[in-house]
Structure formats: C-alpha cells, structure tokens
What we know:
Blueprint: H1 2-18, H2 21-49
Keywords: Membrane, Transmembrane, Transmembrane helix
Transmembrane segments: 25-46
Amino acid sequence: xxxxxxxxLNNIREFFTTLDTTKKLILGGVALTxxxxxxxxxxxxxxxxx
Length: 50
C-alpha cells in the first residue's frame, strides 16, 4: 500500500510540474475555494448539532 501511495504522489507531482504557471494558479485557487467551502460547511454543521 505505501508503495502505491508513493507512486500516486509522484504522479501528482509530475502532473503539477508539467503544468504551466497559470494553470497552477487556477488549480490552486480552486483548491483553496473548495477547502474554504468545506471548512465553512463543517463549521455550520457543527453549530447546528450543538
């Protein structure tokens, strides 16, 4: 299993290094937006359960 994970991480790293800068920025922005949205949703759901 760890070898498979390492291969996947290497593939992702290669994929990102082949992308040009604008695509990296766009993907980074999308990733940040998704993370922020998840954080907000989890905070809301936590407040509802209290």
